[in-house]
Structures are given as C-alpha cells and as structure tokens.
Specification:
By secondary structure, the chain is of the alpha/beta class. A nine-stranded mixed β-sheet has the order 4-1-5-6-15-12-11-8-9, sandwiched between helices. It has a two-stranded antiparallel ribbon with strand order 2-3. The chain has a two-stranded antiparallel ribbon with strand order 7-10. α1 packs across α7 and α3 crosses α4. It has seven helices and 15 strands. The chain is globular, with a radius of gyration of 18 Å. Helices cover 30% and strands 23% of the residues. It has a domain of 180 residues: Class I glutamine amidotransferase (GATase) domain (Rossmann fold). β2 and β3 form a beta hairpin.
Length: 267
C-alpha cells in the first residue's frame, strides 16, 4: 500500500498561444523557467493554463488551484482593454490570452488565491484592475530602452540591465533587504496609469514602475498575496537572492492560505 505524504500546492502557470513546427500549428506554451521555479523554489506542482479565451472555466480553476503565476510573453495586451490607441502594425497580440487571464486575475484576487505577476503578467495585472499602459517606453522622452537586448547570448539578454529603487517599508524592501537592486529588462510596454488599489514597490531610474502590490479592490482590502514585477526573476533565481526570495515568498503564501480560509470560516 502506498503511503501518501503531504500534497504539494497546485500552481497555475498562464500560457500564450504560439505557433510551432513547419506547419505553424497553434500551441499553448509557457517557458520552462517558470516550471523550474515552481518546482525548485515554490515547491509546487505546475499546471499549465491554456489561453483559451472566453471558454476559460474560472470557478473550476480557482476551486483547484492554490496559486497562479502570470508569465511574460512577446505578445502585448490589447490596447482596447485599457483605452489606448491601436498597436503599431506587426505588434504581437494574444487576444485569447487576454480574454482568459484578465477575468481570472480579478476572480483570483477576490477569492484570495495568491497571484505572482511577471512581465506581461505584471501589465495584465494593472490592466485587469483598471490601469493603462505605455506601448513603447523607448519612444518616450527621458525613458530608458527597456526592450530585450538583441543578443544571441542568453547570459547577455537576461543579464542585469538597470537598477530599481525599492519603496521604503514595502513587500519588496522586506525581501531585498536593500534600498536598491539590479534587474534584467526585456519589455517594451510599461505601466502608464497605475490601477486603483495598487501600490508601487519599486521604480527604475527613469521613473518606470517596476514592482507593485495589490492592497485593495472595489470590494475592499485584499487579504491574499497579489504582487508583480516587470522584470524576470525566473531567469536567475538560482544565482540572484532577491529573485529567489520572490518565489519563496509566493510559496509561503500558498501554504498559508488554508489556514487563512479556516480562520475566515470560523469568523
């Protein structure tokens, strides 16, 4: 007879629709780095969430998942979702992901399911809660070029690109133990109007918002873990302490949630 140990938390990882193979067949995909971080640091079981548009079963997912990681992607959030002008021709979009993930974000936060948002996921978090985006930071006066370095070497592309000034007394300051950290940078879009209920946890030297935490929604204060970063901690969690701590803190939130639910039921 098999003796079962404690079950690991299930972590939903958002997928993109991408074309693979000689026939460019559509696939639902997420980078292996998120899988590694989930297994090796979070201590969870990764569950890939398809970008299946309006057919997403939100209630079913939230009933079974213990947390959600919103991933980065080459595609950009559709401007119509935040009242922005159309993207320039050729800009990659993923409307099926938008249609599935934005309502999932709102429902997950309302249910207290921990959410960790990364890069595109960071932008989705802001849009889902009522914020807007700059489409090309590099075109704005006084802004750094935050886009992906066009280098074949992954070490160069994913290397530290600029500093982030950490907000005093916040979530990121607690994890970093410092007023400033170094991060990679692989994005064009960035937060323009901060969504209501989000607080800034860190900014780049040019003022670009690089980290946020959700403290409230229209329904009231947020009790669960909901935070995001514009950079990619999944690229260097094996070598960078702050990147590792971000996933560790997310993992702690997953394991604390059953106790929080029991406390709510007892009230």
């Amino acid at each position: 007879m098999r003796i079962r140990g404690p079950l690991k938390p299930l972590v939903g990882i958002s997928c993109c629709t991408k074309q693979f193979g000689v026939f460019a067949m559509p696939n639902h995909a997420a980078s292996d780095t998120y899988i590694q971080a989930t297994e090796q640091v979070v201590g969870g079981v990764p569950i890939l969430l398809p970008a299946n548009g309006p057919s997403v079963e939100i209630d079913t997912l939230l009933d079974r998942l213990d947390g959600i990681i919103l991933t980065g992607s080459r595609s950009n959030v559709q401007p119509s979702l935040y009242g922005g002008p159309p993207h320039a021709s050729g800009t990659p979009e993923d409307p099926a992901r938008d249609a599935a993930i934005l309502p999932l974000i709102r429902a997950a936060i309302a249910a207290g399911v921990p959410v960790l948002a990364i890069c595109r996921g960071f932008q989705e978090l802001n849009v889902a809660l009522g914020g807007s985006l700059h489409q090309r930071l590099q075109d704005l006066p006084g802004r750094l070029d935050h886009s992906t370095p066009m280098q074949r070497s992954a070490r160069v592309r994913q290397g530290k690109a600029h500093s982030v000034r950490v907000s005093p007394g916040g979530w990121l300051r607690r994890l970093a133990g410092a007023d400033e950290i170094a991060v990679n940078s692989l994005h064009n879009q960035g937060i323009e109007r901060l969504a209501p209920g989000l607080v800034v946890e860190g900014t780049a030297p040019d003022g670009t918002i690089e980290a946020v935490r959700v403290v409230s929604t229209e329904a009231g204060p947020v009790r669960g873990f909901a935070a995001g970063v514009q950079w990619h901690p999944e690229y260097d969690f094996k070598t960078d302490l702050v990147s590792r701590r971000i996933f560790e803190d997310f993992g702690r939130a997953l394991r604390a949630r059953p106790d929080a639910l029991q406390a709510d039921a007892a009230d």
